[in-house]
Amino acid sequence: QVQLQESGPGLVKPSETLSLTCAVSGYSISSGYYWGWIRQPPGKGLEWIGSFYQSGSTYYNPSLKSRVTISVDTSKNQFSLKLSSVTAADTAVYYCARQRGDSRAGFDYWGPGTLVTVSS
Amino acid sequence: QSVLTQPPSVSGAPGQRVTISCTGSSSNIGAGYDVHWYQQLPGTAPKLLIYDNTNRPSGVPDRFSGSKSGTSASLAITGLQAEDEADYYCQSYDSSLRGVFGGGTKLTVL
Q1: Beta-sheet strands, E only, within chain B
Q2: What 8-state DSSP symbol labels residue B56?
Q3: How far is the alpha carbon of B44 from chain A, nearest alpha carbon, in Å?
Q4: Which residues pair with A39 in a beta bridge?
């Protein structure tokens, strides 16, 4: 059974960098599939942040591209999200998930999500 | 505003049939990209309900079905049950924006 778990600080100061990690169990990231990050501001809808393939292909939401970096550590079977210069608008529940195919596919396994609040 | 447009809310009585629409454009659904649907219960992560327009993952009841035509897609729920009350989201791919979600639809079971 594939399981994902997000971790990282729940509070980040404005202008700083948000850093989250997604630990994957039950499946090796190196074996394939795309993996991604999605966020959901409180009371609002879902927003795709970006997705990557273990070979190195990475795609970002154009509206966040200048601030986002997704990286992978296959030795630890985990991947990470960094979002720089955060503001209150970046306050959201952040989910990591697996896409059941390529970058156009649906997300079939999700982590429980972690709330990140941007506040001084 | 979301690239994919969904009605903010729909409602139905137990046992009834409801549909949720997802309207896109020629750069996403109309370009032939697949549509996927999610159910999100309060306080939980989204759950994949329909993938590739019409397919149900293992364990999803056949009361849920998806369709796609032109620049739109729809999710139908028959035999509405109290536990179906949730938020529903569509997702597709856009040739410029890549991953896109609908704004979400809140289903109320009366």
Answers
A1: 9-12, 18-23, 36-40, 47-50, 64-69, 72-77, 86-94, 98-101, 105-109
A2: P
A3: 7
A4: A47, A94
User: Which amino acid is located at A105 in the chain?
Assistant: A
Q: Which amino acid is at B51?
A: Y
Between CA B18 and CA A82 the distance in angstroms is 40
Three-state SS at B55: strand
Q: Which two tokens stand for residue B4?
A: 């994919």
- Read off the amino acid at residue B97: L
Beta-carbon separation of B46 and A46 below 8 A: yes
pLDDT in tens, chain A (120 residues): 999 999 999 999 999 999 999 999 999 999 989 999 999 999 999 999 999 998 778 999 999 999 999 999 999 999 999 999 999 999 999 999 999 988 899 999 999 999 999 999
Neighbours of A25 (CB within 10 A): 12
Out of A51, A104, A113, the one facing B33 most closely (by C-beta) is A104
Span A49-75, pLDDT tens digits: 999 998 778 999 999 999 999 999 999
For A81-118, give one letter per residue: b (16+ CB within 10 A) or e. bebeebeeebbbbbbbbbbbeebbbbbbbbbebbebeb
